[in-house]
Specification:
The chain has about 200 residues and is an alpha+beta fold. The protein is about 40% helix and about 30% strand. The protein has four helices and seven strands, in the order H-E-H-H-E-E-E-E-E-E-H. Strand 6 and strand 7 form a beta hairpin. It starts with a helix and ends in an 8-residue tail after the last helix.
């Protein structure tokens, strides 16, 4: 029994020592090509009310409740969420039409120590001959001592998976909208009377 406890204590000590030296910063970047224009992508990203159409945690977080702020578009737009696995908020801090949107994340409920955890994320749109390359990135730091490094490793993996799924969802939504537009435009044009015709 004493030997078992000694081994367990040694293992936990080793984990704690390793945790002290693990980097607590994390950085995640994922990208995808969408067969549409930067303006079409930006339309989905710019308005926080559209995020439920493609955000991955809308599908995976149990009991998710999202509250939009008074502003939902552009710099100053805010959103709060509460789910069984946590809470948080985001605020758009920079934006340029059809090019990028940058936002700050705060994890945890307000007025708690957990809410000090923050991250900054950015969604960029780069025009290509085949459509638009969308790059979604996030950088942050876990402030919790000892275990912060382990959480940072977990965030690298978890956020990477979530970002990939979110980009796939965004691609599906934007390309579906582009298909509808290309389908209806000829019919809309044909419905207008030819120039010079009379009713």
């Amino acid at each position: 029994m004493k030997v078992t406890l000694a081994i367990l204590f040694g293992f936990l000590t080793l984990l704690a020592v390793v945790g002290l030296f693990l980097p607590r910063q994390y950085s995640v970047t994922q990208k995808i090509t969408i067969a549409s224009t930067p303006a079409a992508v930006f339309a989905q990203v710019h308005d926080l009310r559209n995020w439920t159409n493609w955000m991955p945690w809308s599908e995976q977080s149990q009991g998710l409740s999202i509250t939009q702020g008074a502003i939902t578009q552009g710099v100053g737009a805010t959103q709060r969420w509460v789910a069984k696995d946590g809470a948080g908020s985001l605020e758009v801090v920079a934006s340029k039409a059809d090019e990028f949107l940058e936002y700050e994340l705060r994890f945890g409920a307000e007025d708690t120590a957990e809410s000090r955890e923050q991250a900054r994320a950015r969604i960029e749109m780069h025009p290509l001959s085949t459509g638009t390359e969308v790059v979604w990135s996030m950088q942050g730091r876990i402030n919790t001592p000892v275990v912060g490094g382990y959480f940072a490793l977990y965030m690298n993996r978890l956020a990477g998976v979530m970002f990939r799924q979110g980009l796939r969802n965004l691609k599906a939504v934007v390309e579906a909208d582009a298909t509808k537009t290309s389908y209806f435009m000829p019919e809309m044009i044909a419905s207008y009377p030819a120039s010079g015709s009379r009713a």
